[in-house]
Amino acid sequence: MTNIRNFCIIAHIDHGKSTLADRLLEVTGTVEARKMRPQYLDRLELERERGITIKMAPVRMSYTFRGTPYILNLIDTPGHSDFSYEVSRALAAVEGAILLVDVTKGIQAQTLSNFRSAQKAGLKIIGAVNKIDLDLAHVEKVIEALANLLGVPEGEIFKVSGKTGAGVPELLEAVVSEFPAPKESKENQSLIFDSLYDDHKGILAFVRNFGGTLKNTDEIYLLATKSKLKLKELGYFVPDLKAAKEILPGEMGYLATGLKEPDLIRIGDTVSNNPKSHALHGYREAAPVVFISFYPTGSTKFEDLKMGFAKLKLTDAALSLEPEANDALGRGLKVGFLGQLHFEIISSRLENEFNAEFITSFPSVAYRIKEGDKEYVIKQPQDFPVKPDKVFQPIINIEILSPAEHLSSVMNLKKVFDLEILEVKTIGQNVLLQGKMPLSELIRDFDDQLKSLSQGFASFSYDLAGEEEADVEKLEIVVANEAVPALTRIIPKKDLEREARKSVEKLKELLPKQQFAQAIQAVSGGRIIARETIAAMKKLLGNFGKTGGDRTRKMKLWKKQKRGKDRLKQTGRVEVPIEVFREILKK
């Protein structure tokens, strides 16, 4: 175990983690030069399309330092705050972390957040600045800022280029000499830090072995689910799966379970070949904060959608799933996400990997409702009561890091969002704004607005900070005297009239005409806030010109048609087409 090093790379999004990982694979000879491609560890097609890491990626490298062979287990991690749960799991499986900063951007919000997380996990942290090949004038200022953050001399910050490989051999030497070797537990214990579904091998559990030896002939026990199974295969990530006879203490690898039921493998569970072993601490449960309903459309059936999500949950433990039903859209799933980007990524994976067709509801957050002595939590807008005594909404602490020259522009966010700035600090050439705001504000394109106001230079990170009383109401859309539950939203009272007007006007454009007039109303608390009417479809009555008959006959037909339209108006039911749902549920 003294010759094993387990470490990860952490950074803000787009700071070059995956490119640096590519160079580490090259320098250690893990991947042949002819097989090398950019973002080698990013295996999802979506990661390559977007140029960001979505999933943590483990790899085992062999490296000789001063004549001694070492095993280096690296985990490349995502950088966006929506995937902080992935990062937290990686931190629990390693002893060291490389904190990487792009010299063109400097320290950013998620740099600070990841640094604190690594500190809390008790890891040894090495600082490195990336893209030194650009030879920028302010490199030394970025190095100074990172050294101050880590509390180390500037000489201990490594200068590397993920593009050219400069400084990477020196960084590798520091990984061996500065990161501690793993310590062995006295019990047979391995932690499941990730999982994956394989059509041939069943569910693959990614494990970090803390004690004892796992052998490919073992019968293993999953301590949390109290399950017993015979291993089909085990091995290492090199970076492709390579079968082996055993996984030794301190090492990382995979276990092919042969299981096909996703619910039997849990992220954070302890694997052991001894049923009397104690469970490891595991992970805190991920707390989804944005809830969006998915309904199958087209050729996709509900069971297809459900199985797709179950398989995605194997690779993304942060997802929460609950079945639900809607009169207009049928059976569906209410899915909990860690943020807006998390939702977008999962939606894309559902389409790309499972060819699923679906529509989604408006994003919402969970509200705690108080009515007299009764308290309960609602996650769906249609469950919101008409006049609750009190409503409490989740609040976030938010940190915004911006270049000083964009401070006044970023402060204008307070005019658009319910954002309260509590403190402003200076960090090198940047300013750090610390504040709080309702979580619901975050899903109103906060990220886009911040990037727009700061010309793309500002970044933010956040964490949940309890709850506060909210001044919100339920906005229902009623078409032809019938509420459409899928279009119900919870809106701050100050925005109620604007959102109501926008909704009815958009529906008037989208809904097809009927043979009767359709009233479109936005209703809140029993009050009609906004209304539009789609006129009835006109019906030709024939030619009543000079030779087409007298006017009396024409008037009789008009009156008959009017009576028919009045009856339809009373009994007619409007089915909102699926295409209309797609359009109105767009941002």
Question: Describe it for me?
Answer:
This protein has 587 residues and is an alpha+beta fold. It has five domains: 4-178, 3-Layer(aba) Sandwich (Rossmann fold), CATH 3.40.50; 189-272, Elongation Factor Tu (Ef-tu), domain 3, CATH 2.40.30; 290-363, Alpha-Beta Plaits; 370-469, Alpha-Beta Plaits (2-Layer Sandwich), CATH 3.30.70; 473-584, 2-Layer Sandwich (Alpha-Beta Plaits), CATH 3.30.70. Helix content is 26%, strand content 34%. The protein has 15 helices and 31 strands. The longest helix is centred in the last third of the chain and has 21 residues, at 551-571. It is globular, with a radius of gyration of 29 Å. The mean pLDDT is 85.
What are the salient characteristics of this protein?
single chain, 587 residues, alpha+beta, Rossmann fold, Elongation Factor Tu (Ef-tu), domain 3, Alpha-Beta Plaits, 5 domains, 15 helices
CATH architectural group of the largest domain = 3-Layer(aba) Sandwich
Total beta strand runs: 31
Share of helix, binned = 25-40%
Question: Looking at this structure, what is the CATH superfamily of the largest domain?
Answer: P-loop containing nucleotide triphosphate hydrolases
Largest sheet: 8 strands, antiparallel
Work out the count of structural domains.
5
CATH fold annotation of the largest domain: Rossmann fold
